[in-house]
Amino acid sequence: MNSFSSLAQSFALAKGSSHIRGHVEDVDPLDVERAVKVLEGLEGVSEPTNSDLIEGCWQLMFTTRPGTASPIQRTFVGVDFFSVFQDVYLRTNDPRVSNIVRFSDAIGELKVEAAAAIENGKRIIFQFDRAAFSFNFLPFKVPYPVPFRILGDEAKGWLDTTYLSPSGNLRISRGNKGTTFVLQKKTEPRQRLLAAISTGTQVRETIDEFISLNKNIAKDEIELLEGEWQMIWSSQTETDSWLENAANGLMGKQIVKKNGQLKFVVDILLGLRFSMTGTYEKSGTNKYDVIMDDAAIIAGPYGYPLEMETKINLELLYGDEKVRISKGYNNYVFVHVRTDGTKQK
């Protein structure tokens, strides 16, 4: 093991699952500690607590459980059958570190919160001060019966981050009670989608997963939202001429207007750009008929008209105010991101 990716993968393989969570009792503790030490020796983020990458929701992958752990720590590192998370938010008016045991989507969770502060580039100091159960079948929270004020120093502690990956996805931290935590950042489906496109890794599989997840929660029909939309990925494998690609919406930017007007814009070079306008009309559930018939090469105030017409059956597979996934010309799948910052009214 001599790279971040192979070490991170070794944690997953140790559990035989992509969910990569467990305790050292499940594997050889020496193997876990050896992997941790190698990661700590790699060049990660130099001052983790001063980096925005440390912020977010982290899922516990592995932890040690020394007998010296405090009662509060044992509440979390002693849980084998539920998902355990740690929220880290240090750049707010109320900086906090929160430990969360999530029982299930149907039941709810226990959240224990601590007021936090940055001591140096690696250390966070904290003091637990409140906790509650949030049960999904109750309209109120149930206080967790821990007398934090009476606990005194038992409610205080520190957490050293000894490794934070440059990507911000993996973190190793060691606590004041000698516990070692290996955590993986919990990413939202949209973040996983954009990361897959950025790295070119399993893009189509990630898109299919993203669409499937959102089909389960989507209630309303998908609308073609106005704004400027930049294409960041398409499933096109055979490349036509750039002019045909531009006319078929296979590159560049789409500008959608409320009045049924649509424009394709592609920057060429040296101030030249391709522009093509047309119309869109709703033809069914999540479907639109698009006719593009006014094309030109634009150079400053001048335009050279082109005799072109394109008809596209556009189907929206997913859409929100930031990301759009659609199927269009030749049944290619497209991913667009909004670049103008406007919001649906």
Automatic annotation (TrEMBL):
Please provide the record's keywords in A-Z order: Plastid, Transit peptide
Q: Which GO terms describe its cellular component?
A: plastid
| Location in or out of the cell | Plastid
Q: Where is the Plastid lipid-associated protein/fibrillin conserved domain?
A: 30-183
What is the residue range of the signal peptide feature?
none
Pfam families the record matches? PAP_fibrillin (PF04755)
The record's PANTHER family line, in alphabetical order, gives: PLASTID-LIPID-ASSOCIATED PROTEIN 4, CHLOROPLASTIC-RELATED
- Tell me which family the UniProt entry assigns to this protein: Belongs to the PAP/fibrillin family.
Q: What is this protein called?
A: Plastid lipid-associated protein/fibrillin conserved domain-containing protein
UniProt source species: Hevea brasiliensis (Para rubber tree)
Task: State the taxonomy lineage.
Answer: Eukaryota, Viridiplantae, Streptophyta, Embryophyta, Tracheophyta
